[in-house]
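BUG-258 | component: ligand-complex export | severity: low

The export step for biotin jobs runs without errors, but we want the raw record kept on the ticket for reference. Input record follows.
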Amino acid sequence: MMNLLKPKYPGNLKVISFKQCDSTNDYLRSHYGDLKIKLPVMVTTGLQTAGRGRDKRTWVSSKGKGLYSSFGFELATDAGLQYLPLIAGITVIETLREICGMDLGLKWPNDILYKGKKIAGILIENVIYGPLMYCITGMGINLNYIPADFPDELKDKATSLKMLTGKTYNPDKINPLLAKTFFNWLENLKNNRHALIISTVNRYGAILKDREIRFHHNKEIITGIYKGINTDGGLLLDTKEDSNGEGANVIYYSGEIV
Ligand code: BTN
């Protein structure tokens, strides 16, 4: 494991730290005008009063219990944006492995799980400004939550690093490593190293390979065998749809494994 005593942020990154804010994603979005010349920017906070998850869900963001951070940066609109959720997931998995030595699993596109329970989530919001995309990549990691901290509906579905290791974690020590890992992977994306991204994602998602999953797509639940992530970042599902009972491989670019 690396020495976390003196973690360093990437040199070109502007870091804005709050004790509290509504949502680090919202801060980046509403301050694009002032931040534009300072990008890339990372916003971190000790707690969020209006933390947001995917699909309009709330993200529980209590003080001292989690890491709540977002990266703001620009990418060309044709720079392979479909790989962004994947590198964000890889970043969290690799950072947490470095911090606590645990191997976590990636559930496409970017939920981070331990034994089926969610330990971290990612919210990516992109805004088009002319030829450029302003990308906001928010990460929430459950560090020090205990079961009693989660609302009832999450008690069976969520976990935290503390629940796995018994230790307490300081987000200020993890944030620099998270930033370093993320911007390294962003360089891979910008340099079109797509095959490396896909093979890494498939390695971290290997636990699902050849298992039957249920998949939520356009208000429909589809059942199929998980075959992995294809070369352009889509989910490959063997839906066994055809009349001969042979598998039919279908690629999905949006949706959620349930
Ligand atoms: C999910 O639903 O899995 C995504 C959760 C993303 C939470 C993070 S915490 C930092 C950033 N700010 C937000 O309001 N949400 C993201």
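Assignee comment: Attached the raw record above. DSSP finds six helices and twelve strands in the chain.
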